[in-house]
Inverse folding.
């Protein structure tokens, strides 16, 4: 990143110099974008600044490029070339590359951790599934993507808090209690399947819960009133389901800083939020209900927040919850929701604005659907229950590492086809295996080096690394921290998945081309230094993804 900063500043100074000399007219300089060309022969970096500034400077892009290149100098620069309609390609001196690798070596295990940003804390809320049954594969994608986003933002220096919103109030919890109550009575011969609650949960886990209650307490709840019995079952079932949910997430390398109970919003925080919005004119009464004036803030219609029965809607709780988020001091709030919540974004943003906060400080990321494929055929149902495939079943079949990587490797807003056969395969076609194998290979190299009493010297002669595969690997390593910065800023953890795969590819190419043992000691030491930094980058990237970095495979 340092050389990119130097290069960006040199381009900017060259343009300002041309403006001062009257060669270019006074104009605002466009944002300078530097990219790594797809082919080495096109240079180390390239920019299209000449094309971007053509309109502002009223000149042909090639003429702008020629003027800029004449004014750019530096002892880090070997040469500059102009290509095509006005691309500027920069070729750096080799010592710049080696100095960059030496700097990465000095960072050690801190490589990949960027300086802390001086800003208000960021909250990322994700998964937040109803605690009424097991997590399914859709929740798994949210868990993997959300935790990877938190990890990459922390690596980029953002102060981040991760949060799970426990939907432990409302009808879904009442329906959970009714479902357990019916299964309990049914198992004891006091109810029939045909009378199962209309909105009840039919999962096998509900039967399991009822069976555990009977095993522990027998029929002692039969003599209670139904309200009393259901009150007890509600708490027992909620505690059990939440514990199972937390266990599944823990097994999936997904951990939260805060578990926020919806119950803590009722009734006081919900009432306070509604009162606040009434007082500032954003809630009005109509037909005995309270309505949010959301059309004033871009929604297509006003929304009920308190029904005529006095019962709050889901939106009322969400208003109170988001008010509480900002009251806790978060400067940016990120929610990861399922794609079916698309229509809900506008009303929540409207509520945020009505509360007096900037709706741009709330970002909602939508997760698209996951399709499981086995043998090229769509898998819809669990083999065990005949219902949706659970996250626990997926972990059991393909493992946490493969499941997480496959969930993260595509952007959240694209539909994901999850190939179960590929995820289980131990071949280079499986991207997570390909990356992990690179790390295991490096560990094997170091075991062999230790057996031959070979190690990295204090000041290895990095200039001995001249093979094309060595230079490509060095260049790829130097892009890692920039990739972290971009992945965090763009909410795109899939960039780290792709980077790790590409870095592994660079390493495998180097490994197949360059020997380490059996070559001159100084060259061997330099190559060991290179693979040391490579292993650190792979470990760090896999850590962001929540994937292990095995030493043997």
């Amino acid at each position: 990143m340092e050389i990119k900063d130097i290069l960006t500043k040199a381009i900017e100074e060259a343009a300002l110099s041309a403006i001062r000399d009257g060669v270019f007219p006074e104009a605002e300089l466009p944002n300078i974008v530097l990219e790594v060309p797809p082919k080495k022969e096109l240079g180390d970096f390239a920019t299209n600044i000449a094309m971007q500034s053509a309109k502002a400077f009223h000149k042909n892009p090639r003429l702008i490029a020629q003027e800029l290149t004449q004014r750019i100098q530096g002892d880090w620069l070997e040469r500059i070339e102009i290509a095509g309609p006005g691309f500027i390609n920069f070729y750096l001196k080799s010592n710049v590359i080696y100095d960059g690798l030496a700097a990465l070596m000095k960072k050690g295990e801190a490589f990949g951790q960027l300086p802390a940003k001086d800003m208000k804390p960021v909250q990322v809320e994700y998964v937040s599934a109803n605690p009424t049954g097991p997590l399914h594969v859709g929740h798994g994608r949210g868990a993997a993507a959300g935790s990877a986003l938190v990890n990459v933002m922390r690596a980029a220096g953002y102060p981040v808090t991760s949060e799970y919103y426990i939907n432990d109030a409302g009808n879904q919890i009442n329906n959970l209690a009714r479902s357990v109550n019916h299964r309990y009575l049914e198992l004891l011969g006091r109810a029939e399947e045909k009378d199962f609650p209309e909105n009840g949960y039919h999962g096998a886990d509900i039967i399991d819960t009822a069976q555990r209650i009977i095993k522990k307490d027998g029929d002692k709840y039969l003599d209670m009133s139904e309200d009393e019995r259901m009150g007890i079952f509600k708490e027992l079932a909620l505690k059990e389901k939440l514990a199972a949910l937390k266990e599944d997430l823990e097994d999936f390398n997904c951990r939260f800083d805060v578990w926020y109970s919806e119950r803590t919003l009722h009734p006081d925080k919900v009432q306070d939020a509604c009162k606040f919005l009434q007082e500032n004119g954003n809630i009005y009464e109509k037909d005995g209900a309270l309505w949010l004036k959301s059309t004033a803030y871009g929604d297509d219609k006003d929304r009920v927040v308190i029904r005529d029965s006095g019962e709050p809607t889901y939106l009322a709780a969400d208003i109170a919850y988001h008010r509480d988020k900002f009251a806790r001091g978060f400067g940016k709030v990120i929610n990861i929701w399922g794609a079916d919540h698309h229509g809900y974004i506008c009303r929540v943003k409207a509520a945020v604005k009505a509360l007096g906060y900037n709706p741009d400080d709330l970002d909602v990321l939508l997760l698209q659907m996951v399709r499981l494929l086995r043998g090229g055929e769509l898998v819809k149902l669990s083999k065990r229950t005949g219902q949706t495939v659970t996250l626990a079943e997926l972990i059991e079949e393909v493992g946490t590492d493969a499941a997480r990587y496959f969930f993260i490797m595509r952007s959240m807003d694209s539909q994901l086809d999850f190939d179960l056969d590929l995820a289980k395969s131990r071949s280079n076609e499986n991207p997570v295996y390909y990356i992990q194998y690179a790390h295991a290979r490096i560990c094997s190299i170091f075991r062999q080096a230790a057996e031959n009493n070979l190690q990295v010297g204090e000041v290895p002669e990095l200039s001995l690394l001249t093979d094309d595969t060595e230079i490509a690997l060095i260049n790829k390593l130097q892009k890692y921290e920039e990739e972290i910065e971009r992945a965090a800023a763009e909410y795109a953890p899939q960039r780290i998945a792709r980077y790790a795969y590409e870095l592994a590819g660079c390493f495998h190419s180097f490994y197949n081309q360059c020997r380490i043992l059996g070559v001159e000691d100084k060259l061997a030491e330099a190559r060991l230094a290179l693979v040391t930094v490579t292993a650190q980058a792979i470990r760090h990237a896999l850590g962001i993804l929540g994937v292990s970095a095995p030493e043997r495979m």
Observations:
- Residues 172-241 form one domain.
- The longest helix spans residues 226-251.
- The chain has a mean pLDDT of 94.
- The chain is about 50% helix and 15% strand.
